[in-house]
């Protein structure tokens, strides 16, 4: 009797049984996972650049140690995610080539510059905060290696979010100049952070299938709304004004109403025309070229060992 592989797959998805690398899966499922996981990996790797910019200028040894640890964590996240993508049959070099050629996307947020020390705290509080909201449901994604990688990633992101918020609390109790620096950073990071959740649901082309396959559990707009509701009281505690005149508590809905995102800016950044897109890709390409000797040495060592085993 012919086995209905599609039916077995559908049943697993419906019964919350994880799909593993050697299981049969529809090609479209494989393709969308490779797309999302590799873009997620690229975001972690490119995401190191805006913060790395401040490692040498952190205001104290302690802040420097924390920032170094955080940036190294992001490198680790990128590496787990590249491995998770490899389990779907795509090679690491292919995914990297797609990043370097500009074919693959990475999160729009990392194309904004880090102009002051307050920006580093903002990245921890807002950017990692948004990343956690999006990634906690991914711990239950239907694809095993992706879901399992997310567990550790989320634990680390939660430390990142706290260290960012704590550094902003310090600034919020500081001099008038420090408070002004904090508000200026808020004005620049608020809207780009809301854009991280992706386009509005009615134009989110991948959502329907990703939700059906239980890769995504909540829609882009649902997570964005949750983020606003969580962040407003945290901003108030810091004494910050959120740069949105339409932000207002809606008693009936039990959540905040907020203004319209500048979608033209979002798509412009996604298409490669943001403030730092070119700089970010140049930095990644240069790092890859400068690392060629390490890859060559590793390959030569592998060949030598193989040769010895044959002798
Ligand atoms: N930027 O149909 P949808 C982090 C693209 S990690 C650029 O809604 P989907 C840690 C999207 O790819 C941050 N492009 O797509 C950290 C699609 O194009 P495609 C990254 C975006 O996949 C912190 C098109 O628009 N997190 O921050 C963006 O269903 C601090 C249509 O969109 C993840 O990647 C965007 N913001 O939903 C590191 C989480 N939004 O691919 C360092 C995993 C959408 O068809 C420092 N990913 N696009 O050519 C996801 O959850 C989903 O992929 C979404 C997008 C929610 C990002």
TrEMBL record:
Protein EC: 1.14.13.149
Entry-linked SUPFAM superfamilies: Ferritin-like
One Pfam family here: PaaA_PaaC
An annotated Gene Ontology molecular function: phenylacetyl-CoA 1,2-epoxidase activity
GO CC annotation terms, alphabetical: cytosol
Catalytic class of the enzyme: oxidoreductase
Name of the protein in its database record: 1,2-phenylacetyl-CoA epoxidase subunit A
Gene label: paaA
InterPro entries xref list: Aromatic_CoA_ox/epox (IPR052703), Ferritin-like (IPR012347), Ferritin-like_SF (IPR009078), PaaA (IPR011881), PaaA_PaaC (IPR007814)
Keywords of the record: Oxidoreductase
GO BP of this protein: phenylacetate catabolic process
